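Workshop exercise sheet. Pairs work together: one partner reads the sequence aloud, the other fills in the structure field after running the prediction. Swap roles for the next sheet.
Pair: D.N. / O.F.
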Amino acid sequence: MKQFIIIILSVFMIHDLFSQSDVNIRYENRKKEGYYNITQIALMMGNRPLSETSSGFFDDRTESVTSPSVTMINGHMFNERMAAGIGTGFEIFDRNLFPVFVDIRRTLWDNRVSPYFAFKMGYAFSGFKKKQYESLYLNHAPHYINNGFFKKYGGFMLNPEMGVKVPLSENADVLFTVAYRHQRIKSTVWDSRHYQKWDYKADMNRLSVGVAIMFR
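Structure field:
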């Protein structure tokens, strides 16, 4: 209980500190519209199936993972509250992903510590190369292939986000973010001996926390 009270008091002290520092920042000179850039680093947390290849046996359990996400958005501020842009990045789920997405964001106000909401939607690319395996063990049907090919793909992505924006200067802000990530993936397996092919599709979900710098 004592630790909880200390945390709450610390949050209010930080808020007051930022609010008092507002006075020293010339908000009337802050850029209200035009180009902006957001560079964000986040950690995504959730479960994933164990690797498609293992040491000689099939295992369909899942494991908890924390994986990195690095994205960059370039866009346009229509006014001090509304903005939209295009983003790209690099992320790790059970495979490397390269997302390309549209970013739409709404800020409640833009002259002090401010909550904001963002909505990202697009497609994450992966699987640029098909790999051959003499012995391929899978965590989905057909489970085992002798002399087969395997390729990973990305898919549709959805990423609603919320957070707070704290001013650093007239031209920069720091953003603290919490988000939910929905990602579709696909894997294709070819049996080169029997000329068969299998497609495996799945939805993966993550919660993420991150920090970003916004330049305007």
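Discussion prompt: The chain has one domain: 2-215. What would you look at next?
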